[in-house]
Structures are given as C-alpha cells and as structure tokens.
Amino acid sequence: MLDERKLAVLRAVVEDYVSTNEPVGSKALAERHNLGVSPATVRNDMAVLEEQGYITQPHTSAGRVPTDKGYRLFVDRLSQIKPLSAAERRAIETFLAGAVDLDDVVTRTVRLLAQLTRQVAVVQYPSLVRSTVRHVELVPLAERRIMLVMITNTGRVEQRVVDLPDVVDDGQVAHLRAVLNASLDGCRLGRVAEQVAELPERLPEPDRPMATAVLSVLLETLVDRHEEKIVFAGAANLAGDFSVGLREVLEALEEQVVLMRLLGEANDPSALTVRIGSENPYSGLRGTSIVAAGYGSGDNELARLGVLGPTRMDYPVTMGAVRAVARYVGQILAGS
Amino acid sequence: MLDERKLAVLRAVVEDYVSTNEPVGSKALAERHNLGVSPATVRNDMAVLEEQGYITQPHTSAGRVPTDKGYRLFVDRLSQIKPLSAAERRAIETFLAGAVDLDDVVTRTVRLLAQLTRQVAVVQYPSLVRSTVRHVELVPLAERRIMLVMITNTGRVEQRVVDLPDVVDDGQVAHLRAVLNASLDGCRLGRVAEQVAELPERLPEPDRPMATAVLSVLLETLVDRHEEKIVFAGAANLAGDFSVGLREVLEALEEQVVLMRLLGEANDPSALTVRIGSENPYSGLRGTSIVAAGYGSGDNELARLGVLGPTRMDYPVTMGAVRAVARYVGQILAGS
DNA sequence: GTCTGGCACTCAGTGTTCCCGAGTGCCAAG
DNA sequence: CTTGGCACTCGGGAACACTGAGTGCCAGAC
C-alpha cells in the first residue's frame, strides 16, 4: 500500500512539523529532505497519505499535518528511540543519587524528567503491594492511644494513630510489637492480611482487643494506599502551546484517578507505552500524547512514570529520556 | 483628600470590575450603585481618583480599572471580610476531619481551598522547628546500616538510612534508642542540637562511633527540612484568565523558594496578609495577588497557607475562605 | 508506468478603510 | 458643588482587496 518513499515522506512530514510547528508543504519538504524527487511527486504521495488518513490539511491551501494515525505509524515503524548523550546520563545519575529518602527520589525524578523533556512529567509513587515489610513500630502516645508506623523495603513509611478500647501498658505494647515484627518481617504487603489473620488468638486474652484495633488500622492502611499517590511537575511547559486545551489538561493533571489511568498498566514492564491523542482514555486530552514506562528494582515493576505533551512532540527524544530515567530510578530504589 | 463619596465610587469601581471583568464607566456606575448623583459628578470624582493613582484607564475613551494602589485602599479600608456560610463551614469541617495522616491533611486542605476560592491554593507543611519530638526509632537493616525514624507531635515522620562505621548488634542499637528517647522526648526540634551535643560521651566507648553517625544524620535531617515543603493545587483555575502571564505564574508555583517568599512571614500570626500585584517580591507575578494566613495549633504558628489569583479577585470572599480554612486546619492538627 | 514542469485555483492571513458607540473632559447654567 | 449638554477620542468590528503558500490536475518527458 505504502511504498518506501511514501513512508519517507510521512517521516519527513512528522519531523518537520514537530520542529517547526507549522503545516509542511510539498516544496519545502522536497528541498529540506533530499528525497531525490520533485515537489510534484511529493504532492502525489501526500495526496495518497491523506487519503489513507495519515496526514491532513488544516484548511485547503495549507500544508499537511500528521494525524494521530500518522504519529502512530511514525512511532511504531519509522523512528528509533534516541538514547541520551553520555553527559546527560551522567547528570541524571548524580542528580538522582543525591536523594535522601523516598519522597526526595520521587520529587527529584519528576523535576528531572520535566526539565529533560521540557514537558509535563508524571511519577507514581512505588506501589506498596509488591514491596515488603521491613519493620513495624508501635509508639505509645497516651494511655489509650498508640501510633503505628510501618516501614517498607522501598523506604516508604506509613503511619496511623490507633485509638484503643482499653488502657494498655508499655509491656503489652512491646509484646505486640515483637509479635508483629516476628510474623511480618519481610512479608509482602499483599500477603500481610492472611499473615495476621489469626494473630490475636495467639496472644494472651487481655492483649486481644488492642491487637484487633491495631490490626484493623494496619489493614486499612494497606487498602487505603492502594489508590496510589501521583505527582507531576513542569506544568509551565504547557503554557504557550495553544494546540492543547490548557485548562482541560491542568484539570486532568489534578485528578489522581485520571492520571492513574493515563500511565496505564504495562503488559510488558520494560516496554514503553505511547498513547497518542485520541488513543487516550480521557477526552480532555485529545491534543496530547503520553509516553510512559514502568520502573522498579530488579524485574518486578513497582510503579510507572511518564511524560505528557502535545501530540506534536519529539517522540524519539522523549522516549529516550523516559526510558533512561525509569532505569536509573529503578537502580536507585534497588540500591537504597 | 478623598471624601466619603469618592471612596464610595472607588469601592463601586472595584466591585463592578471584579464581577464583570470590564472597565467600568461613569454611567453604568451611577445607575447600578444608587449613589444619588449624576454620571457627570461621578466622572469628576473618577478624574480625581485617577489623578491620585487609585484607578486608571486602559486607553482613552474606555472605563476605569482599579490600580494596585486602588485595590490596596479597598482591602484596607473599604471592605469587610466576608464570613463563610454555615453550610460551607460545616463542609470544610467534615472534609478535613476525614484525613488520616499529616500528608492527607495537607492534600485535602490545598484542594479544599482551591475549590472554595476557585483559585490556586498554596499550603506549606507544618514547620519542624516549633514542633516537638514524640519518638525516635532505630531499625537495624543490616550489620552496618540502620534506619532512623523520627516522629513529631504534628504527625510528621522523618526517616533516613544511616551507614555505620562499625558492625553493631541489636543490644547496642536498643540502648542508643533508649538513650535518645529519654533525652529527646518532648524536645523542641529547634533545641535538639544542643540536647544531644555531648550525648556520645555519656555512652560506653564502643557505642560512640555509632552514636556519632546517627546523630550527624539526625541533625542533618533537621536542617535539611528547614527548607519546607510546599504544595499547590487548582492551577486549572488560572487557565482562561488572560490577565495573568500564565507561563510565568506556573513557573513561580513550581519554585519552592519563590512560593516560600510569597507566603511570607506573619508579623501577627492570626492576621491575614494580602499582597497585591506589584507588591509581590517576584516580577512574574505582577498581575496576581496573594492572600495568606498562618495556621497552627494553639497560639504558635506552624506554617502558612494561602491563595493566589488575579489582582482582580473578590478579596472579601477570598479572605473569608482563607481565614476559615486556616482556623480549621489548626484545629485538626491540634486535635490529632 | 512513473516522474516532472506548468498552470489555474483556493483560501488564511494581513493590511486598509470606515464606522459606530461607549466613554471622556470641559463648560456654562442651575 | 452639581448637572446637562456637547464635542472629541479611540478601540474594536465589518467590509474589502491583496498576497502568497500550497494544492490538484494535466500533458509531456524519461
């Protein structure tokens, strides 16, 4: 259907449009990319590409602009991910290595990605489900109140205040702490529930109400946070680009749920997901594309991160940046 | 200088301009606000007000628009803070009461404020300096690695990994933990440094290297976080308002340091701070005003929160909302 | 059969002109 | 001091023509 040259023309159209942000005409195209044919020939090819839905004209007598379908073909078959330069990679590495805790890693990552791509970066906090319990701490606050702190192997800390039905003394708390740690240390969060199911029954009678209260809060913590936390940065990069509905995009960015779905789930964790314009699950994001990747330590994916920008973005470069950052974040998290 | 009626005219100009977003002329003004005088008289007054710099015309033969100086006078002398309705207050209360931890309180607050005012809300995390240590926890991670967790009375949790010079056993860690808690429990963060200064010397010789390492990380935590964390929400409310330089405002919002200075420090904690247009410390925010207030439990101010919007905002309503939210957040934090 | 140069056509964007009306400043009378 | 009257200003919209980039199509060349 589309011979080699037509594909070359499509590629040229995408590249030119991305860099100039103006509809590209046959003449300019034939000149800049030495295709070895005349503008007239290019025109014929463009007519075919338009008929097939890969490009379109904003109005008669204007140049052509790629459609979502055109970008899709470009991403899938006509482009190669562009790796970052050695200097950039080194910069990323040192910048991320300076992080002091999980919060800091995430904050740095999202800023880095925004700056690197000059677009809006989105990062999801590492999932709890796949991580494991490193330590559970109980801190008596008052006679009938203790604070529950749970630390995971990804450095995440969850804390909750627990109100107790009865007065307890420090000895009881210490005992419960010991028991909890003994049975949960190293346990995957997803399996905490079954692990502690009959724990109260193994305790002396007087400790059971306390244990039940603590456990119910503990389990609550786990399900609560299944709605993950997501942060973004670089919104300023959107401003000044009139091709996207700024208001709608900002609204979408502030909706955790929408963001969640944008990042999507990977079928293959190591692969990049690219969603172009209308492929998005949210109508306010018609003019934008999302490039996302999973990240994690080792081979289990912890969460996802990505970049959001106008459909007219430089896909090879963006994809390179996202991939690189995802890798480095994974390394950092694994190492800490 | 300005008699009663001129002030009334100024007030009317501000109110009309705020609600219509169009320069207001003498005729419409004389009609809508029954001033009891003719348009011609109003014109004379306006001429005086303009001469004094309170209002200005965008171009000859257009109505008048308040200047920053005009808004300032309006806020200081011509308006009263408008309290929220009972229903709104109840809504705030229940929404904030549902928060599970400090993070949640802050997130909810910022969203609430953004929605309430239909502008950009900014909230600073409660300051560490004035809060006190509730508990310090040491969790052995490996032979030469422990995690330090500090919990404050405001519910904030700080955590760091500490690399130790020597191998230590659990007993040593437990001992240090006990000593730390004994000397720091209830201690103001600002005074932690002096409190632990000669602590290593009071320990048995073999424990000292470990103690020094832990303490250095602990102190680092305190100074590190002195640069507070700030979050914002409601950026979407800015879009569509062409009177502000969207890009510049978004950039400012993503700069922690700038935000910090925007919220400013209160001379009187309970008072509202209003910064109008050019009064701002940052040039990119010429077209915007900030309404901020301190919040805290009891009488010590923990941090600040506020709202950022176009200079042409409804000050009485905005100020009412900021004040109310600040109060409720203070209550919530005090109660948890 | 494919490519190419030529040619007529289309139409967004720009600049020009013109006009309208809201709003002003000033003045003389109440 | 206030008011009605009046001439003046000027931004913004409508009508119009012009320009030029870009197109589609066709007939001839390779």
TrEMBL record, chains A, B:
Q: Which GO terms describe its molecular function?
A: DNA binding; DNA-binding transcription factor activity
Put simply, this protein is called: Heat-inducible transcription repressor HrcA
Q: Which family does it belong to?
A: Belongs to the HrcA family.
Q: Which Pfam families does the annotation name?
A: HrcA (PF01628), HTH_DeoR (PF08220)
Q: Which organism is it from?
A: Sphaerisporangium melleum
Write out the function statement from the record. Negative regulator of class I heat shock genes (grpE-dnaK-dnaJ and groELS operons). Prevents heat-shock induction of these operons.
The HTH deoR-type domain is annotated at 34-62
The residues forming the signal peptide are none
Task: Report domain Heat-inducible transcription repressor HrcA C-terminal positions.
Answer: 103-319
Superkingdom, taxonomy of origin: Bacteria
The biological processes this protein is annotated with in GO are: negative regulation of DNA-templated transcription
What are the protein's UniProt keywords? Answer: Repressor, Stress response, Transcription, Transcription regulation
